[in-house]
Amino acid sequence: MAKKELRARKLTDFVRAEAAALGFDLCRITTPDSIPLAPERLREFLANGFHGTMGWMEETEERRANPKTLWGDVRSVVMVGLNYGPDEDPRDILGKPDKAAISVYARNRDYHDIIKGRLKEIATRFAARAGEDVKVFVDTAPVMEKPLAEAAGLGWQGKHTNLVSRTHGAWLFLGSMFTTAELCLDEAERDHCGSCRACLDACPTNAFPAPYKLDARRCISYLTIEHKGPIPFEFRQMIGNRIYGCDDCLAACPWNKFAASASEMKLQAREDLKEPSIAFLLTLDDAAFRTFFSGSPVKRIGRNRFVRNVLVAAGNSGDAGFIDQCKALAQDASPDVRGMAVWALSRLMDRPSFNAYAAARPPEDDSDVLEEWLIAGV
What we know:
Structural class: alpha+beta
Oligomer: single chain
Strand content: 5-15%
Largest sheet: 4 strands, antiparallel
Strand order of the largest sheet: 1-2-7-4
Order of helices and strands: HEHHHHEEHEHEEEHHHEHHHHHHHH
Distance between the termini: 80 Å
């Protein structure tokens, strides 16, 4: 074996061992030029407006489409995966209208911080061993992690556009380490979806215009996390009690049943985030929200957007026990909260009671909230 090849093999073995020691379930390697189709697919996604109000995707298009643009010196891309598969079917909570469904990935500490911390440990030791430069990225950077993960062999992008692994199903956090070192490469994974369309059929809002294409504007994850202002009326009932994200397409994937057991270092969900009560979540002011969701990715959307989501769930619950809480929130300082409280009340109160309540309401000057009163028929 040539000296160059031997060095690449030793460094590859080293980085894999480090990744395993820090709890990563998968570690594969590819090159920065391994995703030639990604730029065109991204361009089509943006041209169709499927990104909604996520303007940062347009702003970072060039860097996102080509890893070399992000860092010209990179020779190898190390992709890691961390299993976060739930111990139960996350869709079970959808039949409990008094409870709130929080996406599985957000039921513990922010995975960005955890994975980036572990990757930095690997990068530090790898750089010292290899004498090469390294950079680590986790989701928030303009890196197309799913196509790179597919090219590296971690899995393939399923018809729901998320990564699917033959050993861990649809539940993988991804991270990447770019390096100037030349490493041994893995083979890309091929598509194993076949004729299955379980993920597409599971979507409550028909967010997939075609297999392998996602219109984020119809996606509950986008609507409850990225979307600002009132949630479009047509989607409110479809959201049900999903207050942060949506796991339906992931949970429907048949490959989940073949998933290997997770490592002991898998993130464990907080018990109080598995089935939090809507009644409790409606009580959160800004300080209580920040405290309750400290360290959680939920915290990033802010209290007002979060309570807006909870009010949608309350309105869909059919439970008149939420009326008093919704009335209190109809006086909230946030127009997003006031507006959604109006919608919730219009669904929870009988018509005569709602009309009487509306007649005695205080003056309102926010256009979005006034629109909600019009939608409610007042």
